[in-house]
Every structure is written in structure tokens, then in C-alpha cells.
Amino acid sequence: MQMASFSAKSNSKYSARSISFPSRTHPTTHRIDIELNKLKSLEVKYRTPSSGSVLAGLSDLEELYISLGDLLNMSSTQQALSCLHGRSCTNGLLEGSIRLLDVCGSMREMLMQIKEHVQALQSVLRRRKGDSSIEAVFSNYANFRKRMRKEARRLKQIMGVSLRGASTLLVDDPQLSSLARVLSEVDTVSTSVFQSIVSFLVMPVPRCKQSKWSLMSRLVHRGAVACEDANQEDANEFEYVDASLFALRKHGANDGFDSEKLQSTQHQLGALEMSIGGIENALEGLYRRLIRTRASLLNIISH
């Protein structure tokens, strides 16, 4: 996809402003182009959301916002966004930033709750305090996963508004429009990354009864392999944990908990906790970048 670029030439209709935008070869705009392309390529590389794709997306997105911060600190950018038409663009970006911060904050809260439930599962499986205690924790986790899906629908609705808002940022001024398109594209890519995180967090449990046991068996096996290979990028720890808990719960109800299945489940819970911790740290860094970006936009519009 052709990246939107900044034009160094002044249109005669707007030459009185004497605004000189950085060209496409400018280091700042070039870095933004590179980061945007990297983030778009993730959608092709990772067919389904995974811890690897989420961490890669968050890392690249933070780099993109670092470059965006440099762009917003440039005097030519500040001059363009503080003019009459630029203020309309900036206001739209500010509204988008609120939505992104809302979604980011909700995901951080969701990650904290996931860690609490995972730690509760780890604790009860270590202690093996009794079938009733284990069953209660399993039920709490299953109910929490249902609430997560409900929260995911709310977040996706917010992000849908963000995408629709991003398309309205274009203005008649061709130079300012060029700048607005790039900023809009950053907003769109950010929303896409956030959508992939939400999809990863609420990965559904298969419901097809006819092939459920064979599928669960494959997932448990793949989960064990994924635990042995910490660098496997396409691992979806939620999928493995859900499958393992399902099998453990089903067999345990009939024959008692098998020690090998318990150990496998504990390994997978540990892998999930580690992945969630990494995503949590990456999301914290991105959250701070989003706050800085919003502060820069507020500073531009106040002058």
C-alpha cells in the first residue's frame, strides 16, 4: 500500500502560509513509513492472534509513536496543526486519542484480572486442596472468560468508532491533508493492533462436540510442545490452557486428577502468566506514549 507522504512543495493557493512540510525522505517521516509498513505486514505474517504477534505489534507500535512524537515536535507540524483547518484535524485526533487510551486502560485492567485468575488456578492445583475447591476455581475462571468476551465486544465497538472517525480527518488544504492522512493512518494502525490484542485475549474455546476430544488432544499436545519452546511465536496460550483445563476437569470428575495432566496444566498456566506479564509491560510502555502524544496535541492546540 502506498504510504501517505508529506509534500515539500507549496501549493500556490496556500503559499502565503509559507509552511514547509518535511519531505518523504526526511528521517522522521521515513521512520514513520517504515513502522507503518512493519505493522501492516504483521497482519499477513500472523493469521491468528498470538502472544508473539501481540508483543511484536506493541513493540512496533511504540516505535511508531516515538517517531510520531518527533514529528509533532517539529515547528512545521505545529504550525500546520495550529492553523484554523489544522485545529479541526487536531480535535479529531484528540478524540481518537481518548478512545485509544480508554481501550488501552481497559486492556491493562483485563490483563491484571487474567493474572489473578491464573495465579488462583496455579495455587489450587499445587495444593490439590480437594475436588470441590478445584471445581470452584475452574468455574470462576470459566465465568471470567465469559465476562471477558462481553468486555471485548464493548472495546471493539469503541474501536469501530475510532476507525470511522479517522476517515473524517481529511481537509481541503492539500498540504495539511497530506499530514492529516499520515496521522489518521497511525490512528488506524493503532486500532488494528488493539483489535488483535482483544482477539488474542478472548480466543474462543472450540464448541464442535463431534470432534471435540480429538481437537482437545491435539491442543494439549501442541501446548506441551509450546511450553518446551519458549520462542514459538504462533503459540496461543489461552487456547492451550482452556483445552488443558477442559480435559483435566473432565477426566478428574470421573477418575481423579492425573498427575501428568496436572503437571502439563501447571506448565501451560506458567507459560500463559509469562506471556501476560510481557504483554502487560509492553502495554504499559505504549500507554505512556499515548499520554505523551495527547499532551503534545493539547500543547499544539493551546497555542
From TrEMBL:
<dbReference type="InterPro" id="IPR004320">
    <property type="entry name" value="BPS1_pln"/>
</dbReference>
<dbReference type="Pfam" id="PF03087">
    <property type="entry name" value="BPS1"/>
</dbReference>
<protein>
    <submittedName>
        <fullName>Uncharacterized protein</fullName>
    </submittedName>
</protein>
